[in-house]
Amino acid sequence: MTPIDLRAGISIDADVAVAGGGAAGVAAAVTAARRGMRVVLVERYGFCGGGAVAGMSGTVCGLYAASDRPHAHPEQVVFGFADEFVRLLERRGGITPPVRYGKTFTRVHDPLVWREAADHLLSEAGVRVFLHATVTEALVDGDRVCGLVASTKQGKLAIRARITIDASGDADVLAMAGMPSLVGDDGRVQNPTMIFRLGGVDTARFLRAYGADTIMPQEVSALLRRHDGKGYALPRAKIWLFTTTRPGELLCNCTRVVGPDGRELNTLYAADFTEAETAGRRQVREYARFFRDHLAGCEASWVNDTGVQVGVRQTRQGRGVALLANADVVRGAKFADAIARSPWPIELHAGARPRVEWLLDDWYEVPYGCFVPARGEGLLFAGRCLSAEHEAVASARVTAQCFAYGHAVGHAAAMCIEAGCEPRALRGEELRARLNQDGAQLGAAGALTRTGVRGTGADRTAPDDAAHHPPAGDA
User: Fold this and answer.
1) Does residue 2 sit within a domain?
2) Within this chain, do residues 292 and 369 fall inside the same structural domain, yes or no?
3) How far apart are CA 197 and CA 270, in angstroms?
4) Which of 2, 66, 176, 203 could, after both became Cys, cross-link 104 (CB 3.0–4.6 A)?
5) Using 50, 70 and 90 to split pLDDT, how confident is the model at 351?
6) Distance between CA atoms of 161 and 18, rounded to whole angstroms?
């Protein structure tokens, strides 16, 4: 018999190549495929879900407006692909009704059902998916990205594509192509968190003791501060605990993973990523032990799972034609070329405690240019690596918005291929209109907010160079 060379590799031609199968990548791939594009998606894990599943963020945040009005009910303001995915999770019993999160609401999903819902949508749309495939190279011809290369057990997977979408979360393809990027606030990023699930909880007693708000009350924070360093290592006192779709379970967002010197770890660095994983697991055990010893309903609880990896909030971002500013989030800015909206607060995880700054009874919009590289062709990027200032990304990175970005970028890729143009030549207003036709409910371009603020996006232009660079040797 002639021996088979299992390392010979694979070569594929496609219309659209998508790097990353998180919320943005799944939405982009499904949307482009529904438009008749030949789409290939590569994902480094054996399942899709990104930070929502591998990082176990566990909630679909960003669907509902925030309000401090007494007895306010959930008011959904984000639709399109995000709404479609949530409805699919509902039909499969994989998501809770809205639960209180401070001044707004969120929904807690089952990570196994999330994976299966993504599998279903990708298969139904005809997307060709390669799991266990890690992007290692961008295919570049001059200043144009022509596809990507991924590493698989079968060798190199080379995908040549007319449009490439970087939904890696870390702007990996963009960086490999040498396009401009930025990293946090002068290189400082939000700290990662190891999220875990606690089983064996008497959730009825827990809710009676601490209330329905998933942000724990001051009495719990005071208890954590009082015991930190006195038999427990509890570096974060403002914590979030969510009941889930499963009986007797809490989803626990409470660890604060920093370096031995107190520095916020940046998972672009290999050593920092390793430290975040091991330190995160140690903290999980400390918080779980504390909950057993001190929180009502948790006396017989146990850790039944942690994230496949530490939850990463911020690393490298693309520098786009436009830049979402901190002020845009706070003032609820609207843009004529916007392709997504967000009511989510600035939720900054850095320093001793998370800082939350609310946008009440309103939302802001994100311009299309935040997903088009400042320099280079053939590439769009989506997800938490959008072009945004440090505090702005602390709001704009959450799951419902990542779905919305992917929805928009999937349509943008198809529109560019159909028109034979580059992404920077596509008008955001035209893309917004297409998204409205597909259920996004964004309203007329540049519509007034409830408070009468209007934006044009003209002052959000980003410079055509990289102010910050990834670590030396990072792809």
Assistant:
1) no
2) no
3) 26
4) 66
5) low
6) 9
